Amino acid sequence: MPAAAALMDELVEEFLLRLPPDDPASLVNAALVCKRWGRLIAGPAFRRKFRKIHRTKLLHMARGQEAELNPRYCHRHCS
C-alpha cells in the first residue's frame, strides 16, 4: 500500500473512532460509504480501539455530608 493510502486510512480511522458510541447508526452508515471503510470498521483492531476510547467510566457523585453516609455512584460516559 502506498504511503499516501496508508496515511488516508489512518486519518479515516481517527475520524471514525470519534463517532459517538450512543448513536450506532452513524457507525453503520459510515461502514456503508465504501468497501474500504467497511473493512476498516469490521476489523478487530478498529473495534478494540473504539471500545478502548469509548469505555464507560464510573464517576463518584457526592453531595455534601450525605456522601459520607451514603456514597452514590453514577454510571456516565466520559469523553
Task: Explain the overall architecture.
The chain has 79 residues and is α+β, with helices and mostly antiparallel strands. It has one domain (3-76). 57% of the residues lie in helices and 13% in strands. The chain has 5 helices and 2 strands, in the order ααααβαβ. The longest helix has 15 residues, at 3-17. The radius of gyration is 18 Å and the shape is globular.
Strand content is: 5-15%
- Extract low-pLDDT stretches: none
The rounded distance between the terminal residues' Cα atoms is: 33 Å
Give the biggest beta sheet.
2 strands, antiparallel
Mean pLDDT: 78
* Strand arrangement, major sheet: 1-2
| Cα gyration radius (Å) | 18 Å
Question: What is the element string, with H for helices and E for strands?
Answer: HHHHEHE
Q: How many alpha or pi helices?
A: 5
Number of strands: 2
Residues in helices, as a percent range:
55-70%
Whole-number count of domains? 1
Shape summary: globular
Alpha-beta content class: alpha+beta
